[in-house]
Amino acid sequence: MKRVFLVVLDSVGIGELPDxxxxxxxxxxxxxxxxxxxxxxxxxxxxxGLFHIDGVRDKFPAISDKAFTGSVARLAEASKGKxxxxxxxxxxxxxSDKPFPTYPEGFPDEVIREFERRTGRKAICNLPxxxxxxxxxxxxxxxxxxxxxxYTSADSVFQIAAHEEVVPLKELYGYCETAREILKGEHGVGxxxxxxxxxxxxxxxxxxxxxxxxxxxxTTMLDLISGSNLSVIAVGxxxxxxxxxxxxxxxxxxxxxxxxxRLIEITRRDFSGLCFVNLVDFDMVYGHxxxxxxxxxxxxxxxxxxxxxxxxxxxxxILMITADHGCDPSxxxxxxxxxxxxxxxxxxxxxxxxxxxxxxxxxxxxATITEYLGIGERTAAGTSFLKDILx
Length: 391
Prior knowledge:
The chain has helices at residues 30-35, 43-48, 84-91, 109-119, 131-145, 169-182, 221-226, 238-241, 256-267, 281-287, 292-311, 364-372, 386-389; strands at residues 3-9, 71-75, 123-128, 148-152, 157-163, 191-198, 205-206, 211-214, 231-235, 249-251, 273-279, 318-322, 341-346, 354-359. By secondary structure, the chain is an alpha/beta fold. The radius of gyration is 20 Å and the shape is globular. The two termini are 18 Å apart.
């Protein structure tokens, strides 16, 4: 019974990619920026090898000569873009030749007018905006008029915010499905996102009932694994990112704490295949809000739970820990950053103190996982590094 646990620490980048300047991200290094906080402590990830990865090792020279218990690599993003969907799809075996469309000046009139026609509600805002700021600035108008707050960001997203007492969740999710039907082709954004909130002006707060509606990807490792009668357990927003495609079991979570709890529980299940986990708080709660200390505390908390995750691993299990992009909270930007990502691999069969250098694409993860699980067919992108990490 072979199992792979793939954990995405959402936005934990490890240094600018060579083309970072094209994205306005020169100098970004999410992990190093966060490490400067007095709340940063990751001794367990240190033991696995995180600080021996290319681009990380030179930032932490005091530990570069220590032995570690895993295999590590630095991953370059081959796709165009720096958003969640692009990063996860590449991890799963799809390299995107062109980025999803973004709307720095808001969505065009034809999109908004069609959305209003089909929902029967007016759309307000229609600008790039912080999720907390937008409900502060438009929440009262929304409650008084019933208009939907539509906004975007530097990412390829169409976000709809609505108060749960004004627009019930089921209705909001229906509006998102309508937007997803409209936003195809030229305007095929990566995700439509429901952003419900509660409270009274000016003390509005977003709830944990967010829901993402992604475009359906092509063939990914999820399809190949589930198509081989193996399990694909999606934890957190993984199911949403892949539009449910190739997923056999979905476990929804409200935050990192719950995601880690569910992961630990799943290590105790009997299954063969993949458990794919996204821990979104690093990005959503701390990275986008430039909260260095909060980000550091979240990473330290994950590290403190790592022994419990490792304890649940069985003889033939492999744990992979990676990221999908950066989101350096120390830079003026509140957006994602174009960075390399870490890969830390651990298991009884995995070589120790093993640095396999820099890989040219996140998709090497997909190729490696499918080879390990004995699946003959591979995704179109990626080269397996399995032989380089096995004892």
